[in-house]
Write a structure and sequence with these properties.
Layout (H helix, E strand, L loop, with lengths): L1 E4 L5 E5 L2 E10 L2 E6 L2 E6 L17 E3 L4 E6 L6 E2 L4 E7 L2 E6 L4 E6 L6 E2 L4 E5 L1
Antiparallel strand pairs: 1-2, 2-3, 3-4, 4-5, 6-13, 7-9, 7-12, 8-11, 9-10, 11-13
Amino acid sequence: MRIVPAPNGGTILVLGDERITTHVVRAGNERHVAVGGDAYTLSLPEKRGSKRGGAAGGGGDLTAQMPGQVRELLAAEGDAVERGQPILLLEAMKMEIRVTAPIAGTVKRLLVKAGDVVERGQRLAEIG
């Protein structure tokens, strides 16, 4: 088996003559994995004592982990949200990705609306 980077940010697994394209997207405790056209969602357990998503990690900014389209907003500006609560649904590569709040707080700004196409790294919302 050989692993090579794909031009669109994914990975290609080469198994003899077979080539399988894979993509992984991180969203909070979940990993959305596309393998050869099939999509899977994996949930990671919380680590005890973990302080992910604090000020050093960008505070309450939500960013797109891959290019996609905003399918639905699940929170509005001014809403109180808990850490891990879904804020919006993003569709990327035929996968539906729940973008979740990295911290508990209030939705300060939504920077996208349903139907918007977003790029990797684009800011989607601010939570404070």
